[in-house]
Amino acid sequence: MRIGTMLALAVGIGLAGCASDGGLWGMEDDGLLCGLPPVGGRVHVEIRYADDGTPSAVPEKCTVAPGTRITWRGPEEAPTPFLLRFTEASPAGRGEPRELPSRETGDRQRVVIIAGEVEGEYKYGIEANGIMVDPAIIIDR
């Protein structure tokens, strides 16, 4: 095996190891942005704020498989608390809270749930700075 091939293989293995523990490119424990293939069953949704304080979810709709760990996370530079309010039911499952306040963990505000087994679209609101917007989570096998 040539040295260049061995080096490329070693780098690839190293990057795969980082990706499997969520340590690649600052992903922390939150996985990749929803819409990309999840790392270890973890995805995140970015909460962003317009200049007037209006929150938004990126992506606005997120499709995940049952059992996926979903993290909503606010920006590092603006630790504004936010509240997730699910309209009819929680995607975490029956009996789980429908209102979830963010908590400061590490360097930002976060809400974390594990997607339940019931497929469907779960509409929710994000409330921050006295303003509410309404994206959705979709659970689909």
Explain what this protein looks like in three dimensions:
The chain is globular and about 35 Å long. The chain has one helix at 3-20, and strands spanning 32-33, 42-49, 55-58, 61-64, 69-73, 83-86, 99-101, 103-105, 108-114, 120-128, 131-133, 136-139. Strands 1, 2, 3, 5, 8 and 9 form a 6-stranded mixed β-sheet that branches. Strands 4, 6, 7, 10, 11 and 12 form a 6-stranded mixed β-sheet that branches. The protein has 1 helix and 12 strands. A hairpin with a 5-residue loop joins strand 2 and strand 3. The model is unreliable at 2-27 (pLDDT under 50). 26% of the residues are buried. It is mainly beta. It has one domain (28-139): Immunoglobulin-like (Sandwich), CATH 2.60.40.420.
